[in-house]
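Long-time lurker. I teach an intro course on protein structure, and each term I like to show students one example going from raw sequence to a predicted 3D structure in token notation. This year I'd like something fresh instead of my usual example. Would anyone be willing to generate the tokens for the chain below so I can use it in lecture? Attribution to the forum is fine with me.
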Amino acid sequence: MPFLNANQLSQIFFKLKSMDSLPIINKTYEVYKEIIDINNKLQKRMSYTLGVSIENSIIACMEHLIMAKNAPKSLKAVYLIRASSQLEITAIKLRLFLELRLANETKIFQTQMKIAEIGRMLGGWLKATQST
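-- Reply from a regular --
Happy to contribute to a lecture. Here you go:
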């Protein structure tokens, strides 16, 4: 495999950083990174149980959003409803983090706000697909 020069590396990095994604997918990715950060500070036992579970929920949500993005119009609503349910499950698990005082409250509240914003975006997308 040939070595890449600095210009080629910067072009590849730029393409990866500016992936042609919808804002809702980018916001969900940000939440995923925040959840990973929260999980890294959990006790080992909680990290392997609740931590892994919440990561799987947000990943499933992201997968359904990507499927909805690429699906034909007739199937978009199905994937959006699935993404919405996974997002709600993520929010419930995050609330459990808060109630059990497993992580920094400020970080959890910030993540909850982003999840609420994703929910609004998701609801708008779903409404738009059902009206057409």
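Some talking points for your students: Residues 44-70 form the longest helix (27 residues). The two ends are 49 Å apart (CA to CA).
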